[in-house]
C-alpha cells in the first residue's frame, strides 16, 4: 500500500514514509524524518527533522513534533524524538527533541497524549501511558508504564513518575512519585494512597496489592526517616518484583531527589 499525501502538504524528499502512511492538508514533514506503516498524520501538523514515528500512530491537527528544545544551552546539535507504535497524539501537542544531555526525547507505544500536552527536551515517557489535556512536562522528566496524569498538571523538570501511578489533575508535580501510588495536590504535592483500583484493573493479585500497601505504610506512615523505612522494608519483605521496584525507585536517581510524602508529614 502506497502513502497518501494531500496536495497541499509539504514533504521533504529526504523523509522516509512507510507503506500506508497518510498525510493531511497543509502538514509539513522535514528531512531526516521516518514514519512507520499505517500512521495517519492529520492536517496542519509540523514534523521536524529528527523525528522517528512508529507504526499505526495517529497524529492530530496542529501537533508539533521534534521542535527545538526550549533550553538556553541548546546549540543546534543533532538530536531526535522517538515515538513508538500505536500512540495517539491529539490536537496541538508539542514534543521537543532532546539535547546533548541524552540526545533524545522518547515516547513509547500505546499511549494517549491528549490535546495541548507539552513534553520538554530529554523526557522519557513509557508505554500505555494516559496524559490528559494541557499537562506540561519540563525537561528530563520520566514517566513509567501505565501511568495516568490528570489534566492541567505541571510536572517540574527532572521529576520521575513511577509505573502504575495516578497523578491528580491541576497538580503541581514537583516531587518524585514512586510506583503504584496516587499523588496530587495544588499547594502541596503529596501521597494520596495506593492506586489499588488501577492495580486491580491491570491484573495485580490481591496478595500483591496487599504487600505493596504494607510497604507504603512503612514508608509513609511509620514515622521513620526514609532511609530507615527502606531498611525495614528490606528486612521484613521477601524480594518480590514489586518490592524491589519500590526500593529501587527510592534508591536511584540524582539531582537531590525529593519524594512525595503524606499531607501531614
Features:
265 residues, alpha/beta, UDP N-Acetylglucosamine Acyltransferase, domain 1, Udp N-acetylglucosamine O-acyltransferase, Domain 2, 2 domains, eleven-stranded mixed β-sheet, nine-stranded parallel β-sheet, 4 helices, elongated
Written description of the protein model:
The chain is α/β, with parallel strands linked by helices. The chain folds into two domains: 4-140, UDP N-Acetylglucosamine Acyltransferase, domain 1 (3 Solenoid), CATH 2.160.10; 199-251, Udp N-acetylglucosamine O-acyltransferase, Domain 2. It has four helices and 28 strands. It has helices spanning 196-201, 206-221, 226-236, 241-251; strands spanning 4-5, 10-11, 16-17, 22-23, 28-29, 34-35, 40-41, 46-47, 51-53, 58-59, 64-67, 80-83, 88-89, 94-96, 104-107, 112-113, 118-119, 124-125, 130-131, 136-137, 142-143, 148-149, 154-155, 160-161, 166-167, 172-173, 181-184, 190-194. Helix 2 runs antiparallel to helix 3 (226-236). It starts with a strand and ends in a 14-residue tail after the last helix. The mean pLDDT is 96.
Summarize the helices and strands and which ones pair or pack:
Layout: E1 4-5, E2 10-11, E3 16-17, E4 22-23, E5 28-29, E6 34-35, E7 40-41, E8 46-47, E9 51-53, E10 58-59, E11 64-67, E12 80-83, E13 88-89, E14 94-96, E15 104-107, E16 112-113, E17 118-119, E18 124-125, E19 130-131, E20 136-137, E21 142-143, E22 148-149, E23 154-155, E24 160-161, E25 166-167, E26 172-173, E27 181-184, E28 190-194, H1 196-201, H2 206-221, H3 226-236, H4 241-251
Parallel strand pairs: 1-4, 2-5, 3-6, 4-7, 5-8, 6-9, 7-10, 8-11, 9-12, 10-13, 11-14, 12-15, 13-16, 14-17, 15-18, 16-19, 17-20, 18-21, 19-22, 20-23, 21-24, 22-25, 23-26, 25-27
Antiparallel strand pairs: 27-28
Helix pairs in contact: 2-3
